[in-house]
Design a protein that fits this description.
The chain has helices at about 20-35, 50, 55-60, 70-85, 95-110, 125-140, 145-155, 200-210, 230-240, 255-260, 275-285, 295-300, 315-330, 330-345, 350-365; strands at about 10-15, 35-40, 60-65, 90-95, 115-120, 140-145, 165, 185-190, 215-220, 245-250, 265-270, 290, 310. The chain is an alpha/beta fold. It has two domains: about 10-170 and about 350-365, 3-Layer(aba) Sandwich (Rossmann fold), CATH 3.40.50.2000; about 185-345, Rossmann fold (3-Layer(aba) Sandwich), CATH 3.40.50. The model has no long low-confidence stretch (mean pLDDT about 95).
Length: about 375
């Protein structure tokens, strides 16, 4: 009996670096390699440290084009030629530049099954809007990292295009609930891109206000700079918080779980989000999360049950949020209850690689 050949899968993304979409991809890499004849096209740099855990046969599947983004149009014919030589059965694109490339390939090779992956509930700039909308018209299936991202697809994609939510959880929840000490000094974490959408200066001002109320708090900020680090440093200086708020740099993904277990509290006041993976991971670790209810967060967290929602929309709601945060920090029993519910929120949820591969198999079988 002949062995059926694996389907060929081309996965196109912007870079291999520390970020929610990229780390989710890396977590699925061994499973994708096992299930498919895989080729990965990276339209930017690859952090070699992130590939260290993988064997050579997987590393060989990754082709990188480490050129500046402004050279995208110049290298596009080269990348398209390589994809054409591979002759994939399935193409996945993640983020707008890869969507631009994948939609061109789909137009030329209509037989290919094109899966467009959305990672946000909003468009961040004009090229993002233009190329994602264009890709939606050509995609066979749209994958969304959250209900909020799915809502964007349902609004802008053709009505007949299937839209599926993919779980973005990378690691299973700990087997037993984490144990935290909800006592001073209150150790608060932020882990994510240092981007203006994360609204980190407001988080710094919140910590400054709480310290002025006599609360013993330290706030550690982890993440790579996405153009906001100077603004963040300026706000720390303005609030005179140099001794209490530290910029810690990027997190080694292999140490992230251990790091999160060291912080009983998490603070993130984003303007917009998709899945908000760092919030989900903090909840898995049993942290009490003070978060703005944007993106997918209200779908998996409940205010005053498994998280505390912060609402900076008006001066009145923001002051109320600060008062609530202070009252919560001062009540260890409330913290324990919220921590337990946060941990329970993700028990037995599917992981990224399971969810993604299930959708790929389902839709390619039915095509």
């Amino acid at each position: 009996m002949a062995i059926r050949a694996k389907q060929k899968l081309a996965y196109i993304l912007h870079e291999v670096a520390i970020g929610g979409a990229e780390l989710a991809f890396l977590s699925a890499l061994p499973n994708l390699h096992h299930q498919f004849d895989l080729q990965v096209y990276v339209l930017g740099k690859v952090d070699p440290g992130l590939l260290e855990p993988y064997p050579p046969e997987i590393k060989r599947r990754i082709i990188s084009y480490p050129y500046p983004s402004w050279m995208g149009l110049l290298i596009m014919p080269l990348v398209l030629r390589r994809i054409h030589q591979f002759r994939p059965d399935i193409v996945i694109s993640s983020l707008w530049r890869s969507a631009m490339l994948a939609s061109i390939y789909k137009k030329r090779q209509t037989r290919v099954q094109y899966f467009l992956f959305l990672h946000s509930s909003v468009y961040f700039h004009k090229p993002d809007r233009y190329f994602l909308k264009r890709a939606m018209k050509r995609a066979d299936v749209i994958l969304a990292d959250s209900a909020a991202s799915k809502k964007l697809a349902l609004r802008d994609a053709p009505a007949q295009t299937p839209v599926e939510i993919v779980s973005m959880l990378i690691n299973p929840s700990p087997a037993t609930p984490p144990v935290h000490a909800f006592t001073p000094p209150y150790r608060i974490l932020f882990a994510g891109r240092l981007h203006k959408v994360k609204n980190i200066p407001l988080a710094i001002s919140a910590i400054a206000w709480l310290r002025k109320q006599g609360m013993d708090i330290v706030f550690d900020i982890y993440g790579r700079d996405n153009g906001e680090i100077h603004t963040i440093r300026e706000r720390i200086q303005q609030e005179q918080m140099e001794a209490h708020i530290q910029l810690k740099g990027e997190i080694n993904p292999n140490l992230k779980e251990t790091l999160q277990q060291q912080y009983p509290f998490y603070l993130q006041l984003s303007h917009d989000e998709g899945m908000a993976m760092s919030v989900a991971e903090a909840m898995q670790a049993g942290a009490v999360c003070f978060v703005s209810p944007v993106g997918e967060i209200p779908a998996y967290a409940e205010d005053h049950v498994s998280a505390i929602f912060m609402k900076p929309d008006t001066p009145e709601s923001w002051q109320q949020s600060l008062n609530t945060m202070m009252a919560t920090l001062r009540n260890p029993e409330t913290c324990r209850k919220v921590s337990q519910e946060a941990y329970r929120a993700f028990l037995e949820k599917p992981l990224y690689h399971e969810s993604l591969i299930n959708h790929l198999i389902h839709h390619t079988k039915s095509s």
